[in-house]
Amino acid sequence: MNDKAHWEHVYAAKTANEVSWFQKYPKTAVDYIEALALPKTAKIVDVGGGDSNLAASLLELGYNNIWVVDISTTALAKAKIRLGKKAASIHWIVSDITEWETDLQFDFWYDRAVFHFLTDSVPIQKYIALVNKAVVHGGNFLLGTFSAIGPLKCSGLEVKQYSEETMRKTFLPNFEAVQCFTENHTTPFNTVQHFQFCGFKKLLNTGKSF
Description:
By secondary structure, the chain is an alpha/beta fold. It contains 6 helices and 9 strands; from the N terminus they run H-H-E-H-E-H-E-E-H-E-E-E-H-E-E.
């Protein structure tokens, strides 16, 4: 089973609150975005957003330039049904993030629990190249993965754990980590997953042109 088939099966077989990453309200992401005081017109992308509640929460706060990218058509279809007419206000993209080709540039890139599924060097480097290209100079990037003491697997797949140090180093020299923190996520099954987050800022002068 390839990655797309795997995630289509997961989202077809389970409801939103039957997957471990479910959050009724994405407080971490929303709080971080609001602390940045981004304009409501800021271009925001939720990578691997699937059937999450972040896009809906941002719409409620008045943000109006929101993109959601996910490998699963089923996940995005569920999110559109839940949002109803409001779904038309979101830009929906079906793609494996490591294969997404875009000239779009974002003021804020958010990824909670996609990057850690990339365990081989080639997809990791593809992701790094994409985020380098797709975040504007001076833009922001918030990444969450399982921490060094977090789970080794999720949804039956192996993950790559990150500490603050390894996460910081991974996105040098184009991003500077400005705020790193850990978080305990309680799943719908009352288990705890330990996350590492880092908020990055795209450096203005990196010596590279993307």
